[in-house]
Amino acid sequence: MNTATNDTITGASVLPTSIPIPSFIVTTYSYIWYCFNVLLIKVPGGHYVVDYVKKSINDDPYRTMIEISLILYGIYYYLSKPQKKKSLRSNKPDLSEQEIELLIEEWVPEPLVNDSPLDMKKQGWRLEKIPIVLDGGIRSHIKVSRNNDNEIYDNVLNLSSNNFLNICNSERVINKVKETIKNYGVGACGPAGFYGNQDVHYNLEYTLSRFFGTESAVLYGQDFCVAPSVLSAFTKRGDVIVADDQISLSIQNALQLSRSTVYYFEHNNMESLDKLLSELNAAEARENLPAIPRKFIVTEGIFHNSGDIAPLPDLVKLKLKHKFRLFVDETFSIGVLGSHGRGLPEYFGLKRADSIDVTIGSMATAFGSSGGFTLGDHVMAYHQRIGSNAYCFSASLPAYTVASASEIIDIMENDNSEVTKLHRLSEILHNTMTSDNENNDLNKYVVIKSHKDSPVLHLELTAQFRYNKFHYTKDELYDTVSNLQKKCSSHIIFDPYENEEKFLQAIVDEVLTKYNILITRNTFLVKHETLPIVPSLKISCTSEISEEELSHAVKQIKETILRLCSSL
Amino acid sequence: MPFKEDKRDPTHVPLITPPNLPIEIKRENEFGTLTSKTYLHQVKSFEGKEIPDPVIDTPPYYISIITYVNYLILIIFGHVHDFLGIRFQKNKYTDLIEKDGMAPWYSVLESFYVRRLKKRIDDCFSRPATGVPGRFITCINRVSHKFNEYFTYPGTTRMCLNLSSYNYLGFAQSEGKCTDYAIKTVEKYGINPGGPRTQIGTTDLHREAERLIARFVGKEDAMLFSMGYGTNANFFNAFLDSKCLIISDELNHTSIRTGVRLSGATVRVFKHGDMKGLEKLIREQIVLGQPKTNRPWKKILICVEGLFSMEGTLCNLPKLIELKKKYKCYLYVDEAHSIGAIGPNGRGVCDLFGVDPNDIDILMGTLTKSFGAAGGYIACDKWIIDRLRLDLTTPNYAEPMPAPVLAQIISSLKIIIGDINPGEGQERLQRIAFNSRYLRLGLQRLGFIVYGNADSPVIPMLLYCPSKMPAFSRIMLQRNIAVVIVAYPATPLIESRVRFCMSASLTKEDIDYVLRHVNEVGEMLNLKLNSGKSSWDGKVQRWDIEEVIKRTPEDCKDDKYFVC
Lengths: 568, 564
Description:
The complex is a heterodimer of chains A (about 575) and B (about 575).
Chain A: H1 23-42, H2 46-59, H3 61-79, H4 81-88, H5 97-106, H6 117-123, H7 125-128, E1 132-134, E2 141-146, E3 151-158, H8 171-184, H9 192-196, H10 199-212, E4 216-220, H11 223-234, E5 240-244, H12 249-257, E6 261-265, H13 270-287, E7 295-300, H14 312-322, E8 325-329, H15 344-347, H16 352-355, E9 358-362, E10 372-376, H17 378-387, H18 389-392, H19 399-414, H20 417-434, H21 442-445, E11 446-448, E12 456-461, H22 463-470, H23 474-486, H24 495-515, E13 517-518, E14 520-521, E15 537-540, H25 547-566
Parallel strand pairs in A: 3-13, 5-6, 5-7, 7-8, 8-9
Antiparallel strand pairs in A: 1-2, 2-3, 4-10, 9-10, 11-12, 12-15, 14-15
Helix pairs in contact in A: 1-2, 2-3, 8-19, 10-19, 11-12, 13-14, 20-25, 24-25
Chain B: H1 23-30, H2 61-88, H3 112-118, E1 129-130, E2 136-140, E3 143-145, E4 150-152, E5 157-162, H4 177-189, H5 197-201, E6 202-203, H6 204-217, E7 221-225, H7 228-233, E8 245-249, H8 254-263, E9 266-270, H9 275-288, E10 300-305, H10 317-327, E11 330-334, H11 349-353, E12 362-366, E13 376-380, H12 382-391, H13 393-397, H14 403-417, H15 424-446, E14 458-464, H16 468-478, E15 481-482, E16 484-486, E17 496-501, H17 508-525, H18 545-555
Parallel strand pairs in B: 5-15, 8-9, 8-10, 10-11, 11-12
Antiparallel strand pairs in B: 1-2, 2-5, 3-4, 7-13, 12-13, 14-17, 16-17
Helix pairs in contact in B: 2-3, 4-14, 6-14, 9-10, 14-15, 15-17, 15-18, 16-17
C-alpha cells in the first residue's frame, strides 16, 4: 500500500513494476479510498482528514503503513478480547456436561461445623462447666447450677464478675431504669441514623465526654464490636498500626479488618516501641510517599489477657515524638483506674484529651450497664457516625441502658467511694495472693500476671511447672496452633493445652465445691487467637464484697491451688 | 454537677420531660386500637411453592437522566468547593489537611460523599426522638444552621405518625404485659450483665429465652447475642476459613460481609434473587474448586436474607433449599427483618413458604425489630449449637444479653405464640399483614413505584432524584409523618427511595392519612411514575385518592392484585 503514492484514486497504472501487486487488491483499495473520500468531503471538516491522509501517504508512506497496521491490530485486539479470557481460565478444564455432573456428584463437603466426636470429647467438657446463675441477678452471692442442673450450689461467693463497681445495683439506678422503661419501652427499634437515637442516647454521649474530658463520645451496641469497627473506619491499605503483642482478641480482629500494615512491639516495652517507630519513620522517609499514611499505636488500659497496665506517659511521649496517634482499649480500666474511675489518664495524672486520641470502652464492665463507646475529638466522632459499620448498621442501645449509664456516671462524679473501695479490694486481692509466698511454694507453681491495681487477678502456671507437667511451652503452643491455622485445619486442637485447661478447671471446680467460691478460667479460644497465649485463671473482685470476705476467700483459693499443684 | 436546664448548651439535644398523659391516651399513642375487624388479614402459607421473580418497574428515561445530571451537578460543585476551599479557606478545612506531620483522620476523596452530598441533607437523618417509638414517635425539633453545620434545639417536640421504626408487631410499648415483665425482671435480676457467657454471664433467663426461640423458629437449639450486628460480624469465623466458599446475595447486609471478611473465606456474589445465576455459580465453583490450587472447596455456604430490608423482597426459599440439597451446600438465612413480621404465625420465611425449618442449616435473626428488644440469635441443630458455643468468640469474650432485654423477648414471644393473652399475638400478626398490603396496594394504585413482595412490612417507594429525598422527608415531617429516606450506598446510585416500615400499631385510618399526604406530596414532586409494568392488569395506575381509600381495604386481601 505504501507504494501506491498520491495518485491512488486514478488507478494502478502508475504503480512501479518492480513490486507486483495483484490487481484486485489495487482496484478494491482504490474503490474504498474513493468512497471514503466522497463520504468524508460531505462531512463538515472532512476534507482536513482527506488532506491529512493524502499528505501523510505522500510524505511518509512507512508511517502510514505502521499506522494502518496499528489500527488493524487494535481492531483485532478488540475483537479477540473474549478469547483472551481463555488464558485467565487456563485452569478451567474443558469438560463435558457429563464430566461436570460426575464432579458435582463426587464432591463431598466437610460438615458445617467440626463434628468429630473425638474433638468434642476433648473440648466438650467446657459446656458442662458453664455456670448458670439461677433465680436472680449476677451479684456477689449467687445460686449457680452446672451440667444441666446436675450440680447446684447456693450462696456462692462470686469472684468472676466484671461488674466491678456495683453502682448499677443501687436503688437510684434501678429506679431510673424502671422509670425509663415506663417512658421509653425496652428496645429503640431503629439504627442511630433513623430515629433510633433518642434524647437519652445523646445525653449519655454528653455525659461521657464531660466525665472523661473529651470533645465527643459515640455509643455502640456491644463492647466486643467496637474496636474492629472503629479502627477499620480510619484505616486503609498502606496505613500503619503498631500494636502491643499481648492485645486481646477484639483488637486482633480489628487489626485483621483494618487492611493496614501491622507491626507488634514487645509487651509494654517502650525501648522496643521507640526503636520500631524510629525504624518505621525512617523507612517511610525513604519511600517518599505522596501523602503521610495514618499511623496508630494500639494498646490496652488494663490488658484483658494479663491484667497488666500500659505505661501511658511513655506512650504519649513516643506518640508525640514519632507523630503517631494513640488508640487505647480501656474496657477493663474505665471506672477502675484513677481516683474517680476516669481510667488510665487519671491514673497517671494526665488529661485524656491531650494523651489518647481514640479511647474505646465498655459500659458492661465497671458501669454494669450494656454497650460500648468511643471517646475522642469531634472530627473523629463525626466520621464514625457515617464510616463505622457497627454504628451505622446496627440498632441503637435500649433507652434504659443509656439512661442507667448516665445515672451511674452522675453518681461517680459526685461520690468516688465505690471506686476507692474497689482500689482497696484490688490491693487486698493482690496482697493476699502474694503475701508470705516465701514460706510456701506458690511461686513455684503459678505466676501472677496482673498489675496490683487491677481488680482482675490473672494467674498462670510457671513456664517450668507447665513444661514439667504438661510438656509444652508457650512458643510450642503458638507454633503448633498458628501452623494449624495457616493450614486452615478444621481441628485446631493441641492436647497438652487441653490438659492444662482441664487442670485449671479442676482448680475452679475444687474451689467451688469445697469453698463455695466461683472463679473462672480465662475462656480463650486458641482457634481464634493470633498471638501467643497460655491458659490462665481469673479472680476478680467487685466492690459489693467485704474486705474480710475477700481476703478469706483468696486464702482459700491460694490453699487450693497449692494443694492441687503440689499433688499433680 | 447537676444538670441545669436553663444553662444547657443550645446545640445539645435536651432531655425531654415525658408528658403526663392519661394512661388510655398513652396506650393509644403507642398502639392504636383496631377500628374494625375487617381491617385484618390472615396470611396464608405458600405451601412450598416458589415465588415468581420480582417485576421491577422502571421510570421514564428522562427521570434517570435528570437523576444522573442531579448527581453530576452535586459532584462538580462539591469538587469546585473543595478545590477553592482547601486553597483559600484553610482554617475551615483543618480536618482534611496534614497537620504537624500527622495525616488527617480521612482524606478529601474518602470523605467527599459524606461532606459534599450527605451533609446537605443531614437534617433528614439522625433526628433525635424521645419516648416510645410506637404508633407515634415524638421527634425533638431542631433548627439547622450553616447548611447543617450544626443544629440548635429549642426544646420543643413534634408528634409524628411513625413509619420509620422497625416496630413491626408493635411491641415498642411502655404499657402492657411486656413492660410489666421487664420491670419485674429489673427488680429481680438487675441490669448488669456480669461477664462473658462462658464465664459468668449466663442466667436462667438466657436458658429460657433460648429454648423459646428454638421452639418458635422450629429448631433444636438457639443461642443469644446482645447485638444483632455483632451476631453476624463475629459468626462466620467460627466455622469457615479461607478454604471455604461463601455464595452471597449481592444485597446482603454489611454485618454479614464484615463477618465473612473476618473469617477469610472466599466470597462469590450472585445477582439479587437470581436463582439461575446462583445454580450456574454453584456448579462452576464445585468444578473449579479453590482459586490457584483447584482443590475442592471444604464447604460451600449460601448466604441470603429472608426479607431484604432495602427492597422488601423475599428470598426464593423453596428454590434455595432445592439447590442446596442438590449440590450439598449449606444454607444460611438471615431473618433480621422477617422473623415475627411475616408468615401465618409470624415465624418468618419458613412459615410463609411452608417449608421445614430443618431444611435450612442456620437460621439467624434479630430481636430488635419485631420483638421490641435488642440483640440477635442463631438457631441450629443441637450438635451444631454445642460446637458453636465452643468455637464462637462472642460468648467467650463479649458481654451477654442483659436481663430486661431477655424479659422483653420472653414476654413478646409468648404473646406471639399465644402462651400469654391468647389472641393478642394473632391480632398483631393479622394487623401488620393488612396494614402492609393496604399501604402497598394503595401506593401502587396512586401511581407510585413500589418494590417488594405483597406481605413484606418494608415498603420502599422510589424517589430517584437525590434532591427529592430531602424534599420528601421534610414535607412529610411538616405533615407529622416520620419516614426514612435511603440512598447510595445502601441502594443503587439512581434508586434513592423512601422506606415505609409498617407496624401493627397503626390503624387503617392512620394509613389513610399517610396515603392522602403521600398522594399530595407525590403530585408536587412528580413521583407518580408507575408504568403499569408491576401492576396486575399491566395498566398504568393513576387512581383518585378517594377511590383508593374506598376500594383498597377489601382488594388488598386478594393476592391477584399483587404481582409478586
